[in-house]
Write a structure and sequence with these properties.
Radius of gyration: 22 Å
Number of strands: 18
Helix content: 25-40%
Oligomer: single chain
Number of helices: 14
Structural class: alpha+beta
Shape: globular
Strand content: 15-25%
């Protein structure tokens, strides 16, 4: 059987997906299966990847190939979306340098089953699931509806409330409301009064804890930073920029344009789209040279509304639920997430030594069984199928 391993993708989690796809490629039993690496680039192309590129450290180490990237005096590495508008022939040349582009209508020629190692939007939200179902390709994981539910924390909150599950008190904040509110100090006080301290600011449609911050004290600057971070906005002040050396400015932009920790690229600035970090560096310098006091940047890959939630103090766990042959859910023993930080952020999840996992969670057997029962109930209530990972806290 030929297994198409889908990895990479368009989301901010593409590097984790790339590493995960490599793990699947290495560990798939080659006596039983033929591994077919299907790399999804950040513009949505499906590429039958030449095997040697699977072992590159990051996507940007090989794609787009260096001969197709603009000269960068400051050594910025970029993804495909940072290149200017490419013609069909230019895009074809780039793809052919690392593999063979394949179309969804021809997937059945290359593999029998799709193993989805994609993360985040376009990979876990029902998009790729819909394409595969359209072309009648069986795949791993839940289907279109449960995937769409699983990616949206806002939808989950409403469904949890309607189904009677415990959940933290929360509020939604739209980008329009954020921009139009002139008294952000009062907004912070109102959230503090309603949610208490600490409270959590979340980007609701991202995975891997991207865009999440914890507000632990009444600090207006920290609050504004956290909300902007969840919306993938950045506000740069001339007074902060001018004290940086050139090297510090370059380092700042490397962090800012990182899809994991920053807002990524391309960005919008005063209705102008900026694709490359070098272009962004020049733009910021020009704006401040022209006596602008503040530069506002907004990622094209942003959120229109965010969540603010009460902080839950307690043991954090993950519970895998699988479906048996009769369609009934079976919750496996829950795993405790032992964190080095206040919350299970991107670094804690993926960097060695930042966290550890204990299975089963260190609790009396009665509480473990209660978690399993609740997870099976939730699995059915939200129409999940095949398997799911459910995360939660126990604070009593």
């Amino acid at each position: 059987m030929k297994i198409g391993i889908f990895f990479g993708g368009q989301s901010r989690e593409r590097e984790i997906s790339f590493a995960g796809g490599r793990t699947v490629y290495d560990n798939l039993n080659k006596n039983l299966f033929e591994a077919v690496p299907v790399f999804v680039d950040s513009t949505g192309n499906f590429i039958l990847l030449n095997w040697q590129y699977i072992y590159k450290g990051t996507i940007r180490d090989f794609y787009p190939p260096h001969q197709y990237t603009p000269h960068s005096p400051n050594g910025f590495q970029v993804y495909m979306e940072s290149l200017s508008q490419l013609s069909t022939s230019e895009q074809a040349r780039i793809i052919s340098s690392v593999g063979t582009r394949i179309e969804p209508r021809s997937f059945q020629k290359y593999f029998d089953f799709a193993f989805l190692a994609l993360h985040g939007p376009y990979g876990e939200d029902g998009n790729i699931q819909g394409i595969l179902e359209w072309y009648n390709i069986p795949y791993s994981g839940s289907g279109i509806l449960p995937s769409a539910i699983g990616i949206s924390k806002s939808v989950q909150q409403r469904l949890l409330k309607n189904a009677g599950f415990k959940r933290p008190k929360n509020f939604k904040l739209t980008k329009k409301e954020w921009f139009s509110n002139s008294d952000k100090a009062e907004l912070l006080r109102s959230y503090k009064n309603e949610l208490g301290l600490p409270f959590v600011v979340k980007a609701p449609n991202q995975g891997s804890s991207i865009g999440i911050s914890i507000i632990s004290e009444i600090d207006l600057k920290e609050f504004i930073y956290a909300v902007n971070r969840a919306f993938f906005l950045q506000q740069i002040e001339k007074s902060d920029w001018d004290i940086l050396s050139h090297e510090e400015k370059v380092h700042y932009l490397r962090t800012l344009t990182d899809i994991r920790d920053g807002i990524g690229m391309p960005v919008m600035a005063n209705d102008r789209q900026i694709n490359h970090p070098e272009e962004l560096l020049n733009y910021i310098n020009e704006q401040f040279h022209q006596s602008e006091m503040t530069v506002y940047l907004e990622s094209l890959d942003n959120e229109e509304e965010i969540l603010l939630e009460a902080f839950i103090k307690g043991k954090e766990f993950s519970c895998i639920v699988i479906q048996d042959e009769k369609g009934s859910p079976i919750a496996l023993p829950p795993t405790e997430i032992v964190k080095g930080n206040d919350f299970f952020d991107y670094r804690s999840k993926y960097l060695p030594g930042m966290s550890r996992k204990v299975t089963p969670i260190d609790l009396p057997i009665e509480q473990i069984e209660k978690i399993r029962t609740e997870c099976e109930k939730l699995y059915k209530e939200l129409n999940f199928n095949v398997y799911a990972r459910l995360d939660g806290f126990i604070n009593s």
